[in-house]
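Appendix B. Raw example, untouched.
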Amino acid sequence: MAHKKLVTLKEVSAIAARARKSRKRVVTTNGCFDILHIGHARNLAYARSLGDMLIVGINSDASVRRLKGRGRPLVPARERAEMLAALEAVDYVFVFAGATPMPWILRIRPDIHVKGGDRALAPQHAGRARGRLLESDAVEEAGGRVALFPHTGHSTSALVRKLRRR
Protein backbone atom coordinates (compact mmCIF):
# COMPACT_ATOMS: atom_id res chain seq x y z
CA MET A 1 0.00 0.00 0.00
CA ALA A 2 2.78 2.47 0.89
CA HIS A 3 4.33 2.05 -2.56
CA LYS A 4 1.11 3.37 -4.18
CA LYS A 5 1.65 6.59 -2.23
CA LEU A 6 5.08 7.16 -3.82
CA VAL A 7 4.50 9.33 -6.87
CA THR A 8 6.24 11.74 -9.20
CA LEU A 9 5.59 15.46 -9.25
CA LYS A 10 3.72 15.05 -12.53
CA GLU A 11 1.47 12.37 -11.02
CA VAL A 12 0.78 14.26 -7.81
CA SER A 13 0.01 17.47 -9.74
CA ALA A 14 -2.71 15.60 -11.65
CA ILE A 15 -3.99 14.00 -8.43
CA ALA A 16 -4.21 17.42 -6.74
CA ALA A 17 -6.00 18.93 -9.75
CA ARG A 18 -8.62 16.16 -9.67
CA ALA A 19 -9.05 16.61 -5.91
CA ARG A 20 -9.62 20.36 -6.31
CA LYS A 21 -12.23 19.71 -9.04
CA SER A 22 -13.99 17.46 -6.52
CA ARG A 23 -13.86 20.31 -4.00
CA LYS A 24 -11.41 18.48 -1.77
CA ARG A 25 -8.97 20.52 0.29
CA VAL A 26 -5.36 19.76 -0.68
CA VAL A 27 -2.72 20.19 2.02
CA THR A 28 1.02 20.06 1.44
CA THR A 29 4.12 20.12 3.56
CA ASN A 30 7.77 19.50 2.89
CA GLY A 31 11.09 18.80 4.53
CA CYS A 32 14.13 16.56 4.71
CA PHE A 33 12.63 13.98 7.10
CA ASP A 34 16.09 12.46 7.55
CA ILE A 35 15.28 10.74 10.84
CA LEU A 36 11.59 10.58 11.63
CA HIS A 37 10.78 11.76 15.16
CA ILE A 38 7.72 12.71 17.19
CA GLY A 39 7.82 16.30 15.92
CA HIS A 40 7.40 15.00 12.38
CA ALA A 41 4.56 12.66 13.38
CA ARG A 42 2.68 15.46 15.16
CA ASN A 43 3.25 17.92 12.32
CA LEU A 44 2.02 15.44 9.69
CA ALA A 45 -1.07 14.53 11.73
CA TYR A 46 -1.86 18.24 12.18
CA ALA A 47 -1.37 18.92 8.46
CA ARG A 48 -3.65 16.03 7.51
CA SER A 49 -6.35 17.30 9.90
CA LEU A 50 -6.58 20.54 7.89
CA GLY A 51 -7.78 18.94 4.66
CA ASP A 52 -8.87 15.95 2.65
CA MET A 53 -5.48 15.01 1.24
CA LEU A 54 -1.90 15.42 2.50
CA ILE A 55 0.90 15.56 -0.04
CA VAL A 56 4.47 15.55 1.28
CA GLY A 57 7.44 16.77 -0.73
CA ILE A 58 10.81 15.54 0.51
CA ASN A 59 14.15 17.00 -0.38
CA SER A 60 16.39 14.90 -2.61
CA ASP A 61 19.70 13.68 -1.21
CA ALA A 62 21.63 16.44 -3.01
CA SER A 63 19.20 19.04 -1.69
CA VAL A 64 19.59 17.77 1.88
CA ARG A 65 23.39 17.96 1.53
CA ARG A 66 23.11 21.57 0.36
CA LEU A 67 20.83 22.45 3.28
CA LYS A 68 22.31 20.39 6.11
CA GLY A 69 25.93 19.89 5.12
CA ARG A 70 28.35 17.05 4.58
CA GLY A 71 27.31 13.74 6.08
CA ARG A 72 23.61 14.30 5.48
CA PRO A 73 21.24 12.81 4.68
CA LEU A 74 21.70 9.79 6.88
CA VAL A 75 18.89 7.97 5.09
CA PRO A 76 18.55 7.93 1.26
CA ALA A 77 15.59 9.75 -0.30
CA ARG A 78 13.86 6.57 -1.48
CA GLU A 79 13.87 5.16 2.05
CA ARG A 80 12.76 8.46 3.60
CA ALA A 81 9.89 8.59 1.10
CA GLU A 82 8.88 5.02 1.86
CA MET A 83 8.86 5.69 5.62
CA LEU A 84 6.59 8.70 5.15
CA ALA A 85 4.31 6.78 2.80
CA ALA A 86 3.84 4.15 5.50
CA LEU A 87 2.26 6.74 7.80
CA GLU A 88 -1.53 6.87 7.93
CA ALA A 89 -1.64 10.69 7.82
CA VAL A 90 0.22 10.84 4.49
CA ASP A 91 -1.65 10.35 1.23
CA TYR A 92 1.17 10.94 -1.29
CA VAL A 93 4.93 11.48 -1.20
CA PHE A 94 7.27 12.73 -3.88
CA VAL A 95 10.94 13.70 -3.95
CA PHE A 96 11.99 17.11 -5.24
CA ALA A 97 15.48 18.18 -6.22
CA GLY A 98 15.23 21.95 -6.19
CA ALA A 99 16.79 24.26 -3.65
CA THR A 100 13.30 25.44 -2.67
CA PRO A 101 9.77 24.01 -2.88
CA MET A 102 8.40 27.04 -4.72
CA PRO A 103 8.28 25.47 -8.23
CA TRP A 104 6.26 22.47 -7.11
CA ILE A 105 4.00 24.55 -4.85
CA LEU A 106 3.06 26.67 -7.86
CA ARG A 107 2.37 23.46 -9.78
CA ILE A 108 0.36 21.61 -7.11
CA ARG A 109 -1.41 24.76 -5.85
CA PRO A 110 -2.26 23.56 -2.34
CA ASP A 111 -5.16 25.06 -0.44
CA ILE A 112 -2.98 24.94 2.67
CA HIS A 113 0.77 24.51 3.06
CA VAL A 114 1.97 23.54 6.56
CA LYS A 115 5.37 24.30 8.07
CA GLY A 116 6.83 24.10 11.56
CA GLY A 117 6.21 27.04 13.86
CA ASP A 118 9.90 27.84 14.10
CA ARG A 119 9.34 29.83 10.90
CA ALA A 120 7.63 33.20 10.43
CA LEU A 121 4.83 34.17 8.08
CA ALA A 122 5.80 37.83 8.00
CA PRO A 123 9.19 39.55 7.75
CA GLN A 124 10.91 40.57 10.97
CA HIS A 125 8.45 38.60 13.10
CA ALA A 126 9.72 38.82 16.65
CA GLY A 127 10.35 35.63 18.52
CA ARG A 128 10.83 33.35 15.50
CA ALA A 129 14.02 31.35 15.22
CA ARG A 130 14.28 31.80 11.46
CA GLY A 131 13.31 34.36 8.84
CA ARG A 132 10.17 34.61 6.71
CA LEU A 133 8.95 31.33 5.33
CA LEU A 134 10.22 31.05 1.76
CA GLU A 135 7.09 29.27 0.60
CA SER A 136 4.64 31.99 1.72
CA ASP A 137 4.68 33.99 -1.51
CA ALA A 138 4.38 30.90 -3.73
CA VAL A 139 1.49 29.45 -1.69
CA GLU A 140 -0.38 32.75 -1.69
CA GLU A 141 0.29 33.27 -5.42
CA ALA A 142 -1.24 29.84 -6.05
CA GLY A 143 -4.35 30.86 -4.08
CA GLY A 144 -3.62 29.02 -0.84
CA ARG A 145 -2.60 29.91 2.67
CA VAL A 146 0.21 28.87 4.99
CA ALA A 147 -0.47 27.28 8.38
CA LEU A 148 2.18 26.96 11.05
CA PHE A 149 2.37 23.96 13.33
CA PRO A 150 3.64 24.90 16.80
CA HIS A 151 7.26 23.86 17.10
CA THR A 152 7.63 20.82 19.34
CA GLY A 153 11.28 21.42 20.17
CA HIS A 154 12.28 18.25 18.31
CA SER A 155 14.85 18.40 15.55
CA THR A 156 16.68 15.88 13.40
CA SER A 157 19.76 18.10 13.44
CA ALA A 158 19.70 18.12 17.26
CA LEU A 159 19.37 14.32 17.29
CA VAL A 160 22.33 13.99 14.91
CA ARG A 161 24.46 16.30 17.11
CA LYS A 162 23.50 14.28 20.18
CA LEU A 163 24.40 10.99 18.53
CA ARG A 164 27.73 12.34 17.27
CA ARG A 165 28.67 13.52 20.78
CA ARG A 166 28.17 9.99 22.06
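End of appendix B.
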